[in-house]
Amino acid sequence: MTIRNLEHAFAPKSVAVFGASARDGSVGRVVFDNVVSGGFEGEIWPVNPKYLQVEGRQCYHNAADLPGIPDLGVIVTPPDTIPGIVRDLAEKGTRAAVVITAGLTRENGLRQAMLDAAKPTLFRIIGPNTVGLMIPPVKLNAGFAHMAARPGNIALLSQSGAIATSLIDWAADNNVGFSQIVSLGDMADVDVGDCLDMLAGDARTRAIVMYLETIPNPRKFISAARAAARIKPVIAIKSGRHEQSAKAAATHTGALSGADRVVDAALLRAGILRVKGLTELFDAVETTARFVPLERARVGIVTNGGGAGVLAVDQLIEGNGELAELSPGTIACLDAVLPSTWSHANPVDIIGDAPPERYRGAIEAVAADAGTDVVLVMNCPTGLGSPLAAASAVAALVQDGKIGGKPVLTCWLGGYTAREGRRVLRDAGIASFETPADAAMAVSNLSEWSRAQRALLRTPSSQGEAATSGREAVLAVFRQVAKEGRRMLTETEAKAAISAYGIPVPETIIARSPAEAEAAAGRLLKVSEQVVVKLLSKAVSHKSDIGGVMLNIVDAAAAGAAARTIEARVRKHAPQADIEGYAVQPMVVRKQAQELILGMSRDPIFGPAILFGAGGVAVEVMDDTAIALPPLDDILSRDLIGQTRIGRLLAGFRDRKPADRQAIIAALNGLSQMIVDFPCLVSMDINPLLADTAGVIAVDARIEIDPEQVDEPGPNPALTIRPYPSGWGKEFSADGTCYHIRPIKPVDIALYPEFLARISPDDLRLRFLSPRKSFSDQMLKRLTQLDYDRDMAFVALETSSGALAGISRISCDPDHAVAEYALLVRTDIQGHGLGWELLRQLVYYAKADGIERIEGTILGENTKMLAMCREFGFSIRRHPKEPGLVEATLELC
């Protein structure tokens, strides 16, 4: 729904240029000349009160004088004139404009005045301060770029005009074309999220590339990106990779969660491939558009030059790629077709004199290996073999860029002699690169995109995969902390909180004096060989920094002495700190355990972020951590662990047995669920979390909260990715048949073919307002893979068979005030109340979500739906513009 009225900008049939000028060198002259010379076939109207004609065309004084209603206004006038022009265009009936002019700021009030003029009619504004809009397929160049782009199937969104024009120039030199080019400018109204929504459904756009500097509305952006990335590749550059978060932080996590790491995590969950360089954008498009996502990307390399193969391996490993390990059977097959001097390993060096037949045999053997997912074929020019003949042999083997269903990438090194080979490969639909680095980067991009696509499809429950009953216990702790006016929990309080969410902690006894510490140690030493004594102070966060932790205590008297030593250190280093007592705990000794850190912090853009990695006192120095956005589930938690070096150590090495990975995953899921449940969480460290074959245990924990938010209910509204709303399931019975009604899940796509087959053609026509014989896979993905922040759908499943019986859905407008609804019940079970129940559930949800009004567009002949709407309380009226259609509206507040 964020695309409302944007079609007038993206597919205009007429354009009015305000500020069109005959003066040489003026922006108005350049913009108007670009529109005219580009060959736009619709009406073009110059508007400028200074002229009667511009470039031989009648020039109009203002919007009211125009002979028709322009689909798109292009505005190049002084800043103070723009609010009035927008108002005039809106009154004329225009619904979109590109404002190229700069200087409309919050400070001078012109930005808001422009938005106020646009708001009553939902008039959409691209800009201000933009290079303009370019739509090559309709020959529209509405801006002041130095050249027009050629038509193609790549859409470009750029928050920098300079980057947009640079990419247009580069694309022209590399034979790349575009479906849309949008210079977003200051994004006063239309932002990157709106454009992603528009381009997701654009048939001319095969892939979307973006240059991003800021993300002003993160939830909207992520929601739109997730919708688009389910349908076509979305690739982004985000500048500011080395921007750091605040230097001072109450937790290690706050210091380690640099802003750019959170951006990486956010783009990953949105299904977006992030690349570093401008030219890499288009190489990544070529790779992702050719192939489907892979579970793994283990690479088998075939090369006639050993050095080139080694270079490719270096680049592959540096890009976190994976080299395939060839099976003994594959080695035997290669022995049969290659000379005895071949490398006998991956990369498969087939020797510099390799004829085409040798390439063919090696490629077929490597592609057939079950441990190979991607085949990279390389050629170095030699006097003993023809690059062109080798390329022809590869082209004959590969179908649709694959062999045996596996992607094939090629790298023909060299200039003149390799050029014809690359041409043959590209003409055959095979991705071809000039250097080993480029080829390895393509593999890395395919691997990272595949990982992002897997993350995209995860919709963790708001209750977590293992429901917790600890929320009330944690709420009591947080309320007590807030009552005392504190933000930092004591270690004891923090451990009680994480323990309630399933994260194991050692037993802790609170001692108020050294004597009590001695007595507590005496009790614990009956079951433990050693104990630990720690400072308990609400004023000291990092106890070890001032010597507030004493380890390896073996008798009770030593525990009392340790408490007195800690007291002396506190008086010296932090004399103002109150000593509330001491925490006495068993000394957790796990010689084979790995020290981990789990934590969370609030990112200023994307909200709560989860950190995992190598822990201990040197956590910042080690800096082996990864970031993810909550909510998590088992698969997302496993992926987070896998992004770190210590994640590989957890699998075991030498004499160390593998750690209990499922226990680590459970701890991450528990942390995630606490974040979902408590908006008041500001930051958290669980460091170290010891992990070995016996499981995990949190040795220390630190939590900061916002006392003002303690009683705010979950799910946490600061989450960028809204969790699956699992609390909205219900049971329903009708005429002896039982149904389970719940929010839709991505896996429900498998239920659609049978469901649609049991719906009559007439019912499909009534639901979709026109005859429909088939549904593409892309459309089914859009119907089932929702972002629950903007859309909701309820499915009714037959309890006995699990078959899909009916669906109701709503889609919200940008302001989350109005939602469009739709309803479809299987033809064979209509008339038994299921449609009514699905609509009722939809209305309950909409009210709870704060939606003010539900609207639906219905064919006038759909008497059954109209009767149900009237009975339900909808108001019915004829559609003001479309004969035969009826609008049904239900006010919810």
Give a topology summary:
Elements: H1 7-10, E1 14-18, H2 27-37, E2 43-47, E3 53-54, E4 57-58, E5 72-75, H3 82-92, E6 96-99, H4 110-118, E7 124-126, E8 132-135, E9 140-143, E10 151-158, H5 161-173, E11 178-183, H6 192-200, E12 207-212, H7 218-229, E13 234-238, H8 252-256, H9 259-269, E14 273-274, H10 278-290, E15 298-303, H11 306-318, E16 322-323, H12 328-337, E17 348-349, H13 356-368, E18 374-379, H14 387-397, E19 402-403, E20 406-412, H15 416-427, E21 431-433, H16 436-456, H17 471-483, H18 491-500, E22 509-511, H19 514-524, E23 531-536, E24 549-553, H20 556-573, E25 581-586, E26 594-603, E27 607-614, H21 619-622, E28 625-628, H22 634-642, H23 645-649, H24 661-677, E29 681-692, E30 695-698, E31 701-705, E32 730-734, E33 737-743, H25 752-757, H26 761-768, H27 777-784, E34 791-798, E35 804-812, E36 818-825, H28 834-848, E37 853-859, H29 863-872, E38 875-878, E39 885-891
Parallel strand pairs: 1-2, 1-5, 5-6, 6-7, 10-11, 10-12, 12-13, 13-14, 15-16, 15-17, 15-18, 18-20, 20-21, 36-37
Antiparallel strand pairs: 3-4, 8-9, 8-11, 19-20, 22-25, 23-24, 23-25, 26-27, 26-29, 27-28, 29-30, 29-31, 32-33, 33-34, 34-35, 35-36, 37-39, 38-39
